[in-house]
Recover the amino acids of this structure.
């Protein structure tokens, strides 16, 4: 249910449309550090999924986008 309610519209559809800027701008700001929501949801689903496969479908594309994507990810938020 979480996958259809949150992950599909915010992550999967953006990946299919190759809207990388929308994924780069979907983050949680914690004291100046930008933590991508795709990593947070990947770890949450990884923790509660059966045999740990659910989160991998989110975490693998997230890591590829963040570390080998079309542009470098800025981990520090601008003030």
């Amino acid at each position: 249910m979480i996958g259809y309610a949150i992950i599909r519209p915010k992550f999967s559809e953006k990946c299919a449309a190759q809207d990388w800027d929308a994924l780069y701008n979907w983050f949680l700001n914690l004291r100046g550090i930008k933590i991508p929501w795709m990593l947070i949801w990947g770890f949450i689903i990884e923790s509660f999924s059966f045999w740990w496969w659910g989160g991998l479908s989110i975490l693998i594309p997230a890591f590829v986008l963040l570390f080998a994507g079309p542009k470098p990810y800025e981990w520090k938020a601008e003030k």
Observations:
- The mean pLDDT is 83.
- The first strand starts at residue 27 and ends at 30.
- The two ends are 36 Å apart (CA to CA).
- The helical segments are 2-16, 20-24, 37-48, 53-68.
